[in-house]
Amino acid sequence: MFNNSEKSDQKTTEDILKTVYDALDEKGYNAIDQMVGYILSGDPSYITGHNNARNIIRHIERDDLVEELLRAFLKK
Fold it and tell me: How remote is the C-alpha of 55 from its chain's centroid?
């Protein structure tokens, strides 16, 4: 039998972006600037290690992040 609980534990891209944003904001960074820097450069040092944000954001390909952001923007 397969264990489906692993799949339900996975966060959505939106959840991950919110988690990382909150961690950056809590540490006093300009979260948007830091996240843009990460997306453009791929340099994980733009993302704080606070609340494991750096490891969390690495679970998503940067292309997928851009796609999610563009999709959300165009829905408005």
Answer: 9
Number of domains in the chain: 1
Predicted TM-score (pTM) above 0.70:
yes
Q: Helix, strand, or coil here: 1?
A: coil
Residue 20 lies in a domain: no
Tell whether 49 is covered by a domain. yes
Residue-wise pLDDT for 12-65, tens only, equals 888 999 999 999 999 999 999 999 999 999 999 999 999 999 999 999 999 999
Q: Using the Cα atoms of residue 57, residue 51, residue 45 and residue 34 in order, give the sign of their dihedral.
A: positive
Per this entry, what is the length of the chain? 76
DSSP codes, 31-52: HHHHHHHHHHH--GGGS--GGG
55 lies in a domain? yes
